[in-house]
Amino acid sequence: MRLVVVGAAGRMGRMLVKTVAETEGTTLVGAIDREGSALLGQDAGTLAGIGALGVPLTDDPLTAFARADGVLDFTMPAATVTFAGLAAQARIVHVVGTTGLSEQDFARLDAAARHAVVVQSGNMSLGINLMAALVRRVARTLGEDFDIEILEMHHRMKVDAPSGTALLLGEAAAEGRNIALKDRSVRVRDGHTGARNPGDIGFATLRGGTVVGEHSVIFAGAGERIELTHRAEDRGLFARGAVKAALWGFGKKPGRYSMADVLDIAAI
Ligand SMILES: NC(=O)C1=CN([C@@H]2O[C@H](COP(=O)(O)OP(=O)(O)OC[C@H]3O[C@@H](n4cnc5c(N)ncnc54)[C@H](OP(=O)(O)O)[C@@H]3O)[C@@H](O)[C@H]2O)C=CC1
Ligand SMILES: O=C(O)C1=N[C@H](C(=O)O)C[C@H](O)C1
């Protein structure tokens, strides 16, 4: 499968370039970064630390998508919706790892998914997607006697909060309770907040250092607490998930899919 990496000079972009090069059955045919980037023209493999691949970094996605079967996109919301339109035009698989997407951004992905395969997930790891299934199940079993709080920590450079993964886990908890997350989520607490409302789903965000990604879902009841935790130790985990998603999506009919579809754990 011929793949393009957009945001190829970023933390995830470099890991994706390396993973595509190392994966049997995938070839890197394009590497895109932001217009005006000082790194344009440099070899994507050299940037990724694996030696030259003969694929220079450019700011021309249209040309790159025309010779590709799929694109791996871990960039920024504004860029991702533009790439979604271009990938739909080219009828290629679009794997979206970008987080911080708004409702309008998701509507743009859905529009693109009428013409091409879009696989979107706030977290591409097996562990988190399995944990989401467990969270849904525990939330369904316990009900509102147990308060749900979601805690996440990431490196100091992360720009969005709560993380896409925290929101994915919150959605899973809300599904288990049969409620809409947007009506019951509490993302910030400060000052005299009053007591906790039963049924709310709380979020807490920590940022610092080089933490790759840590998430806990805490079910706090009277005198007991259940905690489910995932710790990502290496970004390669997300990159391998993204490449797996692209290979899975190749040849599928247009639509928006999740990592739970790719991993075949949607029914757990
Ligand atoms: N779903 C998942 O499993 C995971 C998701 N992520 C998400 O992936 C995203 C990227 O994370 P990370 O790699 O750490 O961030 P980085 O900032 O390191 O990388 C983003 C890259 O995208 C580039 N970029 C921005 N705008 C454009 C554009 N219009 N065209 C082309 N390239 C562009 C940036 O360029 P420049 O620096 O010049 O702005 C940068 O090189 C985040 O939303 C993060 O939350 C991260 C890990 C796992
Ligand atoms: O920005 C990151 O680094 C990460 N972002 C994703 C998120 O927002 O959940 C996934 C992962 O935790 C790393």
Automatic annotation (TrEMBL):
Its main location: cytoplasm. InterPro entries: DapB_C (IPR022663), DapB_N (IPR000846), DapB_N_CS (IPR022664), DHDPR_bac (IPR023940), NAD(P)-bd_dom_sf (IPR036291). Pfam families: DapB_C, DapB_N. The active site is at H154, K158. It catalyses: (S)-2,3,4,5-tetrahydrodipicolinate + NAD(+) + H2O = (2S,4S)-4-hydroxy-2,3,4,5-tetrahydrodipicolinate + NADH + H(+); (S)-2,3,4,5-tetrahydrodipicolinate + NADP(+) + H2O = (2S,4S)-4-hydroxy-2,3,4,5-tetrahydrodipicolinate + NADPH + H(+). Transmembrane segments: none annotated. NADP(+) binds at R34. Its EC number is 1.17.1.8. Pathway: Amino-acid biosynthesis; L-lysine biosynthesis via DAP pathway; (S)-tetrahydrodipicolinate from L-aspartate: step 4/4. Gene3D superfamilies: Dihydrodipicolinate Reductase, domain 2 (3.30.360.10), NAD(P)-binding Rossmann-like Domain (3.40.50.720). Keywords: Amino-acid biosynthesis, Cytoplasm, Diaminopimelate biosynthesis, Lysine biosynthesis, NAD, NADP, Oxidoreductase. It is found in: Cytoplasm. Residues 1-124 form the Dihydrodipicolinate reductase N-terminal domain. GO terms for molecular function: 4-hydroxy-tetrahydrodipicolinate reductase. (S)-2,3,4,5-tetrahydrodipicolinate binds at H155, G164, T165. NAD(+) binds at G7, A8, A9, G10, R11, M12, D33, G97, T98, T99, S121, G122, N123, M124. Residues 127-263 form the Dihydrodipicolinate reductase C-terminal domain. NCBIfam families: dapB. Homotetramer. Catalyzes the conversion of 4-hydroxy-tetrahydrodipicolinate (HTPA) to tetrahydrodipicolinate. Belongs to the DapB family. This is 4-hydroxy-tetrahydrodipicolinate reductase. The gene is dapB.
